[in-house]
């Protein structure tokens, strides 16, 4: 477990900026908990892209990073640092 990790999961989750992600996969490689996967952009996400985002996505095979295991995030921040497009931020999960 990286030093910066929170002792337990579920405090934050990674949010991906759909207009920045280029599916380069650095997040997949660095995350110690396997939070990320590269997948085809969903129709809903595609419909919300800016023109710039649509152009970028077209040139990267219509794929982007997703977070199928976001609940395993331990807040280490490695993905935020690794993403060359600065597409990832961590959002606090409110304990309602
Ligand atoms: S901050 Fe990023 S790299 Fe670290 S556990 Fe969470 S999703 Fe994985």
Question: What can you tell me about this protein's structure?
Answer:
This protein has a single domain (12-89), classed as Alpha-Beta Plaits, CATH 3.30.70.20. It has four helices and four strands; from the N terminus they run βαβααβαβ. The strands form two sheets. It has a two-stranded antiparallel ribbon with strand order 1-4. Strands 2-3 form a two-stranded antiparallel sheet. The protein is elongated and about 40 Å long. With 96 residues, it is of the alpha+beta class. The model has no long low-confidence stretch (mean pLDDT 93). It binds iron/sulfur cluster. Iron/sulfur cluster (SF4) binds at residues 14, 30-31, 33, 35, 73-79, 90.
């Amino acid at each position: 477990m990286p030093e910066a990790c929170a002792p337990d999961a579920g405090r934050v989750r990674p949010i991906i900026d759909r207009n920045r992600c280029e599916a380069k996969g650095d997040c997949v490689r660095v995350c110690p908990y396997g939070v990320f996967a590269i997948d085809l952009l969903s129709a809903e996400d595609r419909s919300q892209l800016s023109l710039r985002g649509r152009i970028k996505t077209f040139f990267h095979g219509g794929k982007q990073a997703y977070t199928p295991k976001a609940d395993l995030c331990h807040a280490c921040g490695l993905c935020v640092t690794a993403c060359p497009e600065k597409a990832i931020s961590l959002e606090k999960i409110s304990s309602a």
